[in-house]
Amino acid sequence: MPPSFGKAAYAKVIQRLVERIYNQSPLQDSLYEQAVQWFAEKALRDQKSAELEQQLFLFESRHQQAKKGEQAAIARNLKQAEDQHKTFSEDLEESRFLRYNELFLLCRDILSICQGESFSDTNSYSAKMLGTIQLICPTRGRNIAKENQKARHLYKAVLSLRLLDRLVIDGLIDHPFILERYEEGKAIPYNDETEYHPYRDDVHVPVLMAALLQDIGRCHPSCQAILKGPDGSYDEFRELDAEERNTFLQTSYTEALNYVQDALTTGRYLGRSKEERDRFVQGEIEKRELIQLLLKQAVRPQDVMGSILRIPQIYTGMILSTRQSYNYEDLPKAALLLEKTAEQGKLSKNAVAAFLRIVGMFPQGYGITYIPKDSDGNDMERYEYAIVTGLYPPDFRKAICRIVTYSLTYQASARGCVVSPDNNLYFPQARRKLEIVPEERLLDILRKLVYNFEERMASPLLPRCWHPDDYFLNQKNQNLWNKAEMVQN
Question: What domain of life (predicted)?
Fold first, then answer.
C-alpha cells in the first residue's frame, strides 16, 4: 500500500490555526485579513460617524430654538437622526465584539492544544506544536518567505506563553495582576472543562492576544504601501532601507495599539448578578490593560515585561525568516544571537537566559545529523538522522530528539535520544570524528539517507543538518511526539 502524503489530523489542526491567524483566501476571514479590511474602511467609518454626529447636533440645536409650530416636524427629524446614530454606533460595537470574540475563541483553541495540566505535559504539547509548525513550513524553494510569514504569528505566540510561565516561576515577574491570577490558579485544574481559570482566562489569553496582535499594524495602508509599494508591485520581503524600516516600525506599533483600542471591545457578561457583572467588567478592563501594557513594553526589551513578546518575536523572526538570505543550516544561530544581544545590553539578560533554557540551541523540528553509539557506548563510523522534538534540553548545546533512521534505514519514530555536541555534526568536533571514514563509505551513507538524487548531489559528505520536511510529508512519520525510550548520544 503506498504511503499517505499530506497532513495527518494533528498537522491539519495546526495548519488551520495558522490560516485563522494569517491567510490569503476569498473568504478573507483570518485575523490579519480582517485587520486589512478594518484599516482600509476606517476613513469612511470616521466620516460617516462625523456626519451623523453633526446631523444630530444640528437637529438638537434647531429643536431647542424652534417655535411651537415647528417643533413637531423638527422632533421627527431629531428622532430619525438619533435612531440613525444609535444604529450606526450599535453596529460598530457589535462588529468590535465579533472581532474580539473570534480572537478570544482562537486563543482558547490554541491553549487547548499547547497547554496541559502539568508542567511536563505543557512543554510536550508546546514542543509538538512548535515542531509541527516548523516541519509544515518549507525549508527550500520559492515559498519559504510566504509560508513563514503565515506561520510565524502562531509560533511566536506559543513561545511567549512558555517564556511568561518561566519568568513567573523564576520570580522575575512583579506585575501584581499576573502574580495574583497565577497564585489563584494553582488550586484549579487547568483544562478546557474548567469554566473559569484565573491564570488561563485572565493572563494566558491576553498574552496570546497581545502576541497575535503585535504585528497587526502592518495591515495599515501606510505599512502596506511601504512593503508592497504604491501600486503593489514591490517584493514585500525585500530588505527595507533604514528610513523605510523606521517609518514602518513606528507606524506598525502605533496602529497595533489603535487596533486594540478601536477595533476590539471586551467580553460580555451573560448573567444577572450585578455584583458578578461589576467584577466581570473590572476583570475585562484589567485584561485589556495587560494587552496594551505588553504591546507598549515590547519596545523596551531590556525590561522583563517587555521581553515576554520581544524575545519570542526576535527568535521567531530568525527561525521562520522571510529574508532572501534564509539558510536552514543557520537556524541554531538564532539562540546564539539572542545571547549576544543580551550581552550587549539590548535585551534583558535574565529573560534571555530563561528563554534559552526553554528552547536550547536547536529549534523544534530541526533536522539533526549525529554519530550513534554502539551497545558498548563507542562511537560508530557513520551518521544517522534525528529531529528535535523536546523543549528544556539538559544542556544548551544538547538536543532532545526523535531518531528517524536506524542502521541507515528510515523508520517510524520509535526511539528518542539526547544528542550531545560531541556527536552532533552541526559542531566541528563531531565532523572531525568522521573525517577518517573513506569517501566511498560516506557516499554510500549519503545514497541511503538522502531522498532524491538532486539533493544528494548538492549535499556535503558530512552534512551539518538535514531537511526533514520531505520525511514529515508522509503521514505515518508525523507522530514524532509519542512516548519513546530515550538513549544518550
Answer: Bacteria
